[in-house]
Every structure is written in C-alpha cells, then in structure tokens.
Amino acid sequence: QDPIAQANKGGFDFKRNFLYFTMMINTGYMHSIFVSATIKRGFCQWAKANNLSESGAEVLRRLFVVDGHHHHFHMRMKCSPNYPTCQNQKDLIPKGQTGCEQLGVKL
C-alpha cells in the first residue's frame, strides 16, 4: 500500500512533520530521528513529489529506520559541549545520501 495514503488515513501530516524536523535539524543540536520504514518511505516520496529532494536531503538523511516506531518517533540530540564525556553516535547514512534508495525511492 502507498505509505503516504496509509499514513494520511491515520492523520499523519507529512508537510507539517517535515517542516518540524527541518526546524529541529537546522538548530544544529539534532543527531537523528527514528521512524518506521513506512514513514521514511513516505517522507522520501513526499519530498520527491514536492521538489524537496535536494533542499530536504539532510532531513531525509537524519531519518533512521528503526523497527517499532510505527506510531511514534524518537529524536536523538547531539552531545552538548557541557558534557565532555558524552560521545556522539556515528552517522548511519553517509553525507550526500538520503537512505531513500534503500527503501525503493529514487530521488
């Protein structure tokens, strides 16, 4: 089933959530956002349909598919400089990639 149609049935608003994720990532404090494969695929399709493949690439790159996130998402922040022993996690998706291709969405 089409992930956008499926998510929209549940009231999920791709535009509003994409704008929210963009705002959070643009703060520079956000490391990653954990979502389901269906939601990530839907964001990839939505970004492509709305000509946001390039400008939204960093948002798409920060969306990580993690099982069990069908009805919610988690945000992982970067380490604060106030905690020198904190270690940031490595990026799961290299710069220049979005992770959409692995889900069957060519941007």
N/C terminus separation: 19 Å
By secondary-structure content and strand pairing, the structural class works out as alpha+beta
Mean model confidence by pLDDT:
89
Share in β-strands? 5-15%
Record the strand order, biggest sheet: 2-1-3
The string of secondary-structure elements, in order, is HHEHHEE
**How large is the count of helical segments?**
4
Largest sheet: 3 strands, mixed
Q: What's the number of extended β-strand segments?
A: 3
Topology (elements, then pairings):
Elements: H1 3-9, H2 14-26, E1 30-35, H3 37-49, H4 57-62, E2 63-65, E3 74-77
Parallel strand pairs: 1-2
Antiparallel strand pairs: 1-3
Task: Provide structural commentary.
The protein has four helices and three strands. It has helices at 3-9, 14-26, 37-49, 57-62; strands at 30-35, 63-65, 74-77. Strands 2-1-3 form a three-stranded mixed β-sheet. The longest helix has 13 residues, at 14-26. It is globular.
Give a brief description:
The chain is of the alpha+beta class and 107 residues long. Helix content is 36%, strand content 12%. Strands 2-1-3 form a three-stranded mixed sheet.
